[in-house]
Structures are given as C-alpha cells and as structure tokens.
Amino acid sequence: MIGLDLSDDDVARAVHRIGLRAYAVEAALIGSTAIPALSETWEEMRARPLRWLGAHADGVLAGFAAWSRVGGVLDIARLCVDPDFARRGLGRALVSAVLAEGGPAVVATGAANAPAIALYEAVGFRPAGTVEVVPGLVIAEFTRPGTP
Q: Is 19's pLDDT higher than 70?
C-alpha cells in the first residue's frame, strides 16, 4: 500500500481510469449507471478532500481507497479495484489499511453489490440501512465500531 498524490496528473488520471472501470462493473451489478463517480472528471475527483491509498499488482496501480475523517469517524468514500485485478485480495487489503487508522468507520455501496457487501461484512461492518439516493439507485450503508 502506498499513499497516492493526486496533484500529479498522471496519478490522478490512473486513479480515475481504475475508478471508471470498477464503477462500470458495480453499475452492471446494481442495474444503475447513476453512480456519481461515473460522470465525474479526473479533475473533479482529485479536488475532493480525501486521502488516497493505492495498491499495486504486477508492477502497476491496480486499486485504491479514498477516505476522510468526519467527526472522528473514518468515512470510506471510495474503494475500487481494476477488474483485471479483482479477486486477489486488494480490496480487503486497502480497506484493512484504512481501518488501521483506528476509530469507528462508515462505508456505503450499491445495495445489490453483493461482492462489496460481503467484503465489508467480513471486515466487521454491519448494515445500517438503505437509502434511494436517486430513482433506481439504492445505497446500502454500513458502520463499524471503533478500534484502538
């Protein structure tokens, strides 16, 4: 795992590409293309007040997590693994690295995104409810108690 500097245009573009590929898979799983990140430019993405962590595989950036701390709670805003590198444990490793910062955490994903839900529950997140953010896009929210 390595911190990512999105002020570097090449890094920001690589992260954006991975995000688009990963969110396209999620869109197919949940039956909606209304995922906001799918219509976001790389410039808009990097302007978000998030911390970024990357995972490499086969010598290339293969996934990332982005988060912030809001009121003492880790808010995992993004977790994306390039579909070419899926099922290798990169998502779990990224989430675990973020959670190692300690404290309670929250995360959300498409309510029909079974692989993401299984991952979040496996690392200690519990369902907190669902919300339809736009017609046809239902998001499942999860919480995890704090760790020292």
A: yes
Instruction: DSSP for the chain, please give it.
Output: -EE--TTSHHHHHHHHHHHHHHHHHHHHHHT----GGGG--HHHHHHSS-EEEEEEETTEEEEEEEEEEETTEEEEEEEEE-GGGTTSSHHHHHHHHHHTT-S-EEEEEETT-HHHHHHHHHTT-EEEEEEEEETTEEEEEEEE----
Q: Please give the model's pTM, rounded to 2 decimal places.
A: 0.91
Tokens of 8: 């570097």
Angle of helix 90-99 relative to helix 114-122, nearest 10 degrees?
40
As a whole number of angstroms, the longest Cα–Cα distance in the chain is 40
